[in-house]
Write a structure and sequence with these properties.
Blueprint (H helix, E strand, L loop, with lengths): L11 H10 L10 H9 L12 E6 L4 E5 L4 E4 L11 H13 L11
Antiparallel strand pairs: 1-2, 2-3
Length: 110
């Protein structure tokens, strides 16, 4: 099955989600998804591994990722694969809470 164009029967909860947001839903293993993204990249030289993110600064036009070594990378989209205890996720929660205080609960952060 083509993971991007395949068809399947969705469970009821996914069908309701698709109806409410207008998008089809698929589940995929956490190990497989980054591999698929990587394999489809035309220019793999821009993929950074084993880099520590210290900040993400967003504006209406772009996102700027600041690394521990001081380098900065600007783009339209930040794709992170830094695991369960994600620094990127933590920064995004902080940014969301600045915009809408208490929007993300402590329970959701687990």
């Amino acid at each position: 099955m083509d993971l991007f164009r395949g068809t399947s029967t969705l469970p009821l909860s996914f069908t309701l989600l698709e109806f409410s947001v207008g998008y089809d839903t698929r589940t995929i293993s956490r190990q497989l998804f980054p591999r698929i993204l990587y394999n489809r990249l035309p220019d793999k030289s821009k993929v950074l591994e084993r880099q520590r993110v210290v900040d993400i600064v967003e504006d209406k036009e772009s996102a700027r990722v600041v690394l521990a070594d001081g380098t900065e990378h600007v783009g339209d989209l930040v794709v992170s694969a830094d695991g369960v205890h994600s620094k990127v996720r933590e920064i995004m929660w902080q940014n969301a809470n600045k915009t809408i205080p208490h929007f993300i609960t402590a329970t959701e952060k687990r």
